[in-house]
Amino acid sequence: MGDGIVTTGDDRSTLPAPQRQAGHSNAPASWLPPNHALRECLALQAEAPPISLVARLFGVDPLSRDARRSYSGALAEIALADSLAALGDEWTVVHSVPVGGDIAAGHYPLALDHLVIGPAGIFSITIHSHAGQAVWVGERTFMVDDERLGHLADAEKAASAASRLLAAALKASGTAADVVVTPCIVVDSPSTLQIRQRADRIQTSTARDFTAWLAALPRLISPTVVNALSGVSLQASTWSVSAVVPPNDAHIRRDDFDQLRLHIDSARLRRLVWTGLGVILSYSLVISSASGFSVFAVAHF
């Protein structure tokens, strides 16, 4: 691609106006950030029996055992979306991008969690929650706790679809160019992440490290090209709009998750308070016992 890329015409078939949330003020998002793990966490938590008043008083963790992994994944989704939003004005971040599938036909849509366009190139991002699991990546193999998963093939497939759709949109606007999308896999809090041999073109990293890696990449695309690509990425006609799920209750879900997070943090604080009180009480008993023994020893000397 070169600086000759320009956009022409007046395509007003754009995506809905960006829906901004706290922590996403710099992200020109067209769909809301993905919340797959967040929804799963809330669904699993809703099935758990409520804890008693006594349990709440003593700081028992309100998060159910089944919801713990998806809770960690939800935190990773939120953290990654926030860090992408902080990349700056040179970057365009589009969330939950549909690149294939047809809901009407009963086909599960192929979607990217994020599409990022900036001076370092174009990057498709899919998030996988493997908190506490051992992840091993080879050239053609993605293993999680010794189980082979299809993350590499899925990431490549989604990135290739995004490349075709972006190239077609540029061509329709009067510009022909090769568009290369780098597939990226972001893994949530694995116990270990071992990359023995990096898969061709595919970047794998943790949610904590991804944005720093992205920001450190060399500049390969001029602002003119970035603007052209960013423009078509925000047009509904670019993507597989038949795969778009109707507007959902993401804001309400986020509020529910924030409430759950508040309850979990409050329970942790209460446990710390009770632990501290227990330490103080134990120390006081030891001191009292030592003092009583000293008095007894003096009285019988």
> With helices defined by DSSP (H or I, 4 residues minimum), what is the helix count?
7
Query: How many β-strand runs?
Result: 9
Helix content: 40-55%
Percentage of β-strand residues: 15-25%
Record the SSE blueprint.
Elements: H1 36-47, H2 53-57, H3 68-85, E1 92-100, E2 110-118, E3 121-129, E4 134-137, E5 142-144, E6 147-149, H4 151-172, E7 181-188, E8 192-195, E9 203-206, H5 207-215, H6 223-233, H7 250-299
Parallel strand pairs: 3-7, 4-8, 7-9
Antiparallel strand pairs: 1-2, 2-3, 4-5, 5-6
Features:
disordered N terminus, alpha/beta, 4-stranded mixed sheet, 301 residues, 5-stranded mixed sheet
What does it look like?
α1 packs antiparallel against α3 (68-85) and α1 (36-47) packs across α7 (250-299). The radius of gyration is 25 Å and the shape is elongated. β5 (142-144) and β6 form a beta hairpin. It is 42% helix and 18% strand. The termini are far apart. The chain is an alpha/beta fold. The protein has 7 helices and 9 strands. The strands form 2 sheets. The chain has a 5-stranded mixed sheet with strand order 1-2-3-7-9. Strands 6-5-4-8 form a 4-stranded mixed sheet, with no helix packed on it.
Short account of what is shown:
It contains seven helices and nine strands, in the order αααββββββαβββααα. By secondary structure, the chain is an alpha/beta fold. A hairpin with a 2-residue loop joins strand 5 and strand 6.
